[in-house]
Specification:
The protein has 351 residues and is an alpha/beta fold. Helix content is 28%, strand content 33%. Strand 1, helix 1 and strand 2 form a beta-alpha-beta unit. Helix 1 runs parallel beside helix 5 and helix 3 crosses helix 9.
């Protein structure tokens, strides 16, 4: 039976960032990263990968700033596929105070005119204003997760194609039973399953957290992004348009209010209702682009009741890290940092 210090269940961007952060800070740790599929697949592969210096609560703003600094550091050292973007925020002209609260000092947010949008066909509702902001980027999240794991693969055990079928207390540690009949024993277990919160191996542990799975939809706008096109945040509609230069189209993410979906149910197809909902939002600002939405991506993510990530112990030596409310990539380094603090405190208490 293999024994490790930390077993991380889930190889999405949060699990990958956690493995990377733990081994950066404590190189001698024995870490196992366990992923049912392949590292970076699942919700991370469908992520828009947008990072913005903002947050709806003080805690999320603090986490966003920490992640901002970490992504810059990690990107420069490991050549992560991250592309910085100019940013414009479109909102009601009376939103100055609310915007100033959500976007913090490092974003350098400032009122500007519509020319900053660099987007022909912009015809917003009356009473709309435009702000500029700094510090945003987007990334290929699947590739980011893969590169973080690659950077520590010589020091970590990476178990891809390995499903966890059970967790059992065992001699002051946790036995992690795998589907192929093997068992790992871990002093600490980090559950980072993304939207797979109802998996039988941990459903009972996570049920008291009150987290739920919400459908996520993003439309692909068949419009070639021009160089310099900014990330456009439609603040009042909780939506954004990001130029996907490498793919040659725009991606439009909007809020879909469908809850308690099953990530194992086929969600990949874009239905007409989702398409029309997205087009209706887009038409309020860019009517000429609405008809260029003919495809997209559909998946889901985990949300908490208070709209802040959940990082906490759910059993002795077992920690949950997730419910980032659609911001798993944006907040992953800060989530990893919080996990590291919990594990360090437990290790000190046990010594």
């Amino acid at each position: 039976m293999e024994r490790v210090d930390v077993a991380i269940v889930g190889g999405g961007v949060i699990g990958a960032a956690t493995a990377f952060q733990l081994l950066q800070s404590r190189p001698g740790l024995r870490v196992a990263l366990i992923e049912r599929g392949l590292v970076g697949h699942g919700a991370s592969a469908r992520s828009a990968g947008v990072h913005v210096l903002r947050g709806g609560t003080p805690r999320v703003r603090e986490m966003s700033l920490l992640s901002h600094m970490r992504w810059r550091e990690w990107s420069s050292r490991h050549h992560l596929p991250i592309r910085e973007l100019p940013t414009v925020v479109v909102a009601d002209e009376n939103s100055k105070d609310r915007i100033a609260e959500q976007y913090f000092q490092q974003a350098a947010i400032r009122r500007t005119d519509r020319s900053a949008l660099d987007a022909p066909g912009f015809r917003p509702p009356d009473g709309t204003a435009v702000w500029e902001a700094e510090g945003s980027h987007y990334a290929d999240v699947e590739d980011v997760a893969g590169r973080l794991v690659r950077a520590v693969r010589d020091r970590a055990s990476v178990w891809e194609g390995s499903e966890v079928v059970g967790l059992r207390p065992l001699d002051g540690a946790t036995a992690v039973d795998l589907g192929q009949g093997r068992t790992l024993t871990a002093a600490s277990v980090v559950l980072a399953p993304g939207p797979w919160i109802r998996h039988p191996a941990w459903a009972d542990l996570l049920a008291p957290l009150g987290v739920r799975v919400k459908k996520i939809v993003a439309l692909h706008i068949e419009h070639e992004p021009r160089r310099g096109r900014p990330l456009t945040i439609l603040q009042d509609d909780d939506a954004f348009i990001v130029p996907y230069f490498e793919r040659g189209h725009l991606l439009f993410s909007y809020t879909c209010d469908e809850w308690d979906v099953d990530p194992d149910r086929p969600l990949g197809a874009l239905d007409d209702e989702a398409l029309q909902q997205g087009r209706a939002v887009l038409r309020r600002y860019f009517p000429d682009l609405a008809d260029a939405c003919v495809s997209g991506r559909v998946f889901c993510d985990t949300y908490s009741p208070h709209r802040e990530p959940v990082i906490r112990a759910v059993a002795d030596g077992v920690f949950y890290a997730g419910a980032a409310n659609g911001s798993g990539y944006r907040l992953a380094p800060a989530v990893a940092d919080a996990v590291q603090d919990l594990i360090s405190k437990r290790d000190k208490g046990a010594s």
